[in-house]
Amino acid sequence: MRRIAVLTSGGDSPGMNAAVRAVARAADAAGVGCVGVSDGYRGMIQGQIRPLDARDVSGIIQLGGTVLGTARSKKFYTEEGRAKAATNLRNAGVDSVVVIGGDGSMHGAELLSQEHGFNVVGVPGTIDNDLSGTDFTLGFDTAVNTALEAIDKIRDTAASHNRLFFIEVMGRNAGWIALYSGLSGGATAVLVPESDWDEDNIRRKVVESFALGKRFCIVVVAEGEREGGAFGVAQRICEATELDYRVSTLGHMQRGGAPTMRDRILGARLGDGAVTALLDGDNEVMIGERKLEIIRTPFQETWTTDDRDFGGLLALMDRLAR
Ligand code: F6P
Q: Which one, of 20, 4, 71, lies nearest residue 43 by Cα?
C-alpha cells in the first residue's frame, strides 16, 4: 500500500474527527503515508488533497463537526465526476481510501473501487444509525444525548403546564434517534417509520395518561414521519380534543457539539480498524463494532440487511410508557 486518503462525507457527525485522527495516526504507526481530502467527494473532484501526518490531527479528538469539511456532492454521482476524482487521487499517490460517512458515502466508495480500482474501506459516520454491520454509527450517541437534554428541558415546562409536547427529532428515514431519545426520555410514545402506529391509538394513550394523573406527555416524532411532520401529526391527533399541546423541532442542533466519550472511542476504534483492514488487503467493507468487537461487513450488506433489535426496544418503550 502506498498512501491512504481519508475523507468525511455527507452529513457531519460528532466523532468524525476522532476517526480522522485515528486513521492518520494508525497509518503513521504502520509506516504508510496519509492525505486528507477536504469537503468530501466534492473536494476529491476539485483536487483538495493535502498531507495529513500524525501532528496535523493533534487537538481534534474533542471537536464536533469535521475538520476536513464535508459535502453532499451531486457531481460524484456522474461517471465524469468520479473519473476526475480518481485522477486527482492517483496524482496524489493514493491507492487506498477511507470514507467516513453514511450510506450514500458507502455507495460512492463502492463505485470508486469498482470503476477505478482503489481499495476502499468505510467507517459508518452518521447520526442516523441507519447502517447495519455496527451496533451504533459514529455520532449517534452524541446526537441522542443532545436530543435527550432538550427533551428533559421541555419536560420541565410541560409538567409545569400540564401539557402535551410533540418533539421532532432527526434521522432521515430511520427512527433510531426517536426510539433511543424517547425511551431514555420517558416519552409516552415514539412515532417512527419502522412501526405502523395509529393516530387514534396515540390520542387514546395520551388522554388516558392525563386521566391517570400524569402532568406531562412527551411524544417523540421521527422527522419526515407522515404529512406535515410533527406539526401535522400533532394537529391530527389533537383536533377535536381539549389537549393543550405544543410542538418543538430540534433540527440541526442534534448534529453539533463535542462528541461523547462513546463516540470518541468508537471513532478511534473504527478509524484504526479501517487502516488495519486496508493493510490486510480488504476492500469494499465497512468497519463496525458489534458487541464491542471490531468487525468488517461487505458494503452491500450494510444497506440491505439489518438484524439489530429495533422492534424489541420499541416494545419495551410501549410496555413502560404508562
Ligand atoms: O443524515 C444525517 C441528517 O442529519 C439526517 O438526520 C437529516 O435528515 C439530514 O442529515 C439533513 O441533511 P442536511 O444537513 O443536508 O439538511
A: 71
